[in-house]
C-alpha cells in the first residue's frame, strides 16, 4: 500500500490473545519498485505464558514517497496462539516539524484509533510547530553520487565546497544539510552536535542559519566514546561520521546509542557511514539492517533503508563511498 511520506505507525491489536508458548514476529517491509525489499520496522512478541488479554503494539517508521509498504507477521517454529480478533490501523503523521517547544511536545495528545477499522485511522493531532517546514527538495538519494546530483547539491549549499574538501566530504555534508533543512532544523536557535565532522562549509552554513553548534572529535583510542560524556543532552540534531573503524560488531550500535543520549526528545541523528570497497554489498546491507533493528528495538524511529538493486553500486577495492543513515529519537 502507498503511505503519505513522513512518519507513520502501524498499530496491531490482537483481542483476547492466549498462548502458552511461541514467538510472534511482525515486520513492516518497504517495497521500492525495481529494488530489493528491506525492513522498515520490526518487533518480536514473546508468547510464553500469555494469558487471555488484549495485545497492542505499534511499529513506527519513516515512509518515503513512491515506495509501497507491507505489514506481515510470522511465527518462529510453532505456537498455540489463539485470539478473538485482529485489528490493524495505519496512522499517517506525514512530515511533522520536530522543532517544537518541549512543553508542546509533552502535551501532544496520543492518537485515538478507530477500533474495528482494518484500513486506517485519522492522523493524530499534529505538534504545534514554531515554523512550517520549508518547501524544499527532500532527502532523496542515500548513496553517494557524482555528476548532476552533486552539482545540484553544491549549488544548494555553496559554502560546503570551501576549504578544498573532496567530493565524499562535500556529499556527506550536503546531504546532511538537505535532510536537516527538510525537517526544519536549519534554523535560528537549533542546537546541533557534530561528531567527527570537520567540514568548514557545513559548520559555517549551520552557524549562518543561526544554529548553535558543538564539535566533538573522537580520539582513535577512545573506544568507549568518553568524549561524549561531556556533551550536553539537549541537542536538536547530530551529524556523525561513522568511519570504517566503527563498523565492527556492535561499533555503530554503540556510537548511535551514545549520540542519541545527547539529543533532546524527537531529535534527529544523521550518520554518514563510510563504505570501504573490497567487501560485499550483501554484507554491508545486512550490517545496516542490523544497526536499524537495534535502533528500532531501543524505541527510536529509523528512516527506511534504501539500497540500489543488485551489487553494482558497491565500491570496488581501493575505493571509498558513503551511505546516509537517519534516525529519530
Helix and strand succession?
A: EEEEEEHHHEHEEHEHEE
From the N-terminal CA to the C-terminal CA, the straight-line distance is 26 Å
Strand order of the largest sheet: 8-7-9-10-12-11
Number of strands: 12
CATH topology (fold) name of the largest domain: Rossmann fold
**CATH 4th-level superfamily of the largest domain:** Vaccinia Virus protein VP39
Shape: globular
Oligomer: single chain
Helical content class = 10-25%
Count of separate DSSP helical elements: 6
**Beta-strand residue percentage:** 25-35%
SS-derived structural category: alpha/beta
**What would CATH call the architecture of the largest domain?**
3-Layer(aba) Sandwich
Q: How many domains make up the coordinates? A: 2
Q: Mind telling me the C-alpha Rg?
A: 21 Å
Descriptive report:
The protein is an alpha/beta fold. It folds into two domains: 6-107, Immunoglobulin-like, CATH 2.60.40; 148-328, Vaccinia Virus protein VP39 (Rossmann fold). Helices cover 20% and strands 33% of the residues. It is built from six helices and twelve strands. The strands form three sheets. The chain has a six-stranded mixed β-sheet with strand order 8-7-9-10-12-11, sandwiched between helices. Strands 4-1-6 form a three-stranded antiparallel β-sheet, with no helix packed on it. It has a three-stranded antiparallel β-sheet with strand order 3-2-5. The protein is globular, with a radius of gyration of 21 Å.
Amino acid at each position: 500500500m502507498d503511505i503519505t511520506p513522513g512518519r507513520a505507525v502501524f498499530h496491531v491489536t490482537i483481542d483476547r490473545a492466549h498462548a502458552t508458548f511461541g514467538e510472534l514476529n511482525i515486520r513492516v517491509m518497504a517495497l521500492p519498485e525495481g529494488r530489493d525489499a528491506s525492513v522498515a520496522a520490526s518487533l518480536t512478541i514473546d508468547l510464553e505464558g500469555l494469558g487471555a488479554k488484549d495485545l497492542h503494539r505499534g511499529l513506527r517508521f519513516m515512509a518515503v514517497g513512491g515506495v509501497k509498504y507491507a505489514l506481515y507477521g510470522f511465527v518462529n517454529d510453532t505456537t498455540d496462539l489463539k485470539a478473538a480478533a485482529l485489528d490493524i490501523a495505519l496512522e499517517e503523521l506525514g512530515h511533522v516539524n520536530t522543532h517544537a517547544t518541549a512543553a508542546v511536545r509533552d502535551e501532544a495528545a496520543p492518537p485515538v484509533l478507530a477500533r474495528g477499522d482494518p484500513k486506517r485511522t485519522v492522523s493524530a493531532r499534529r505538534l504545534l510547530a514554531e515554523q512550517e517546514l520549508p518547501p524544499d527538495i527532500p532527502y532523496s538519494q542515500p548513496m553517494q553520487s557524482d555528476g548532476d546530483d552533486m552539482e545540484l547539491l553544491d549549488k544548494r549549499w555553496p559554502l560546503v565546497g570551501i576549504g578544498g574538501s573532496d567530493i565524499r566530504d562535500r556529499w556527506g555534508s550536503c546531504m546532511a544539510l538537505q535532510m536537516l533543512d527538510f525537517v526544519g532544523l536549519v534554523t535560528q536557535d537549533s542546537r546541533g552536535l557534530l561528531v567527527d565532522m570537520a567540514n568548514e562549509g557545513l559548520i559555517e552554513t549551520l552557524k549562518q542559519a543561526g544554529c548553535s553548534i558543538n564539535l566533538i572529535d573522537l580520539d582513535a583510542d577512545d573506544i568507549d566514546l568518553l568524549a561524549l560524556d561531556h556533551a550536553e543532552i539537549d541537542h536538536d540534531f547530530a551529524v556523525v561520521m561513522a568511519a570504517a573503524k566503527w563498523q565492527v560488531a556492535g561499533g555503530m550500535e554503540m556510537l548511535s546509542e551514545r549520540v542519541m543520549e545527547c539529543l533532546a526528545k524527537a531529535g534527529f541523528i544523521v550518520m554518514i557511514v563510510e563504505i570501504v570497497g573490497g567487501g560485499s554489498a550483501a554484507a554491508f546491507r545486512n550490517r545496516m539492517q542490523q544497526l536499524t533493528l537495534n535502533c528500532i528495538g531501543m524505541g527510536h524511529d529509523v528512516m527506511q533503508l534504501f539500497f540500489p538493486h543488485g551489487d553494482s553500486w558497491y565500491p570496488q577495492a581501493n575505493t571509498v563511498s558513503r551511505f546516509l543513515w537517519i534516525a529519530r529519537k
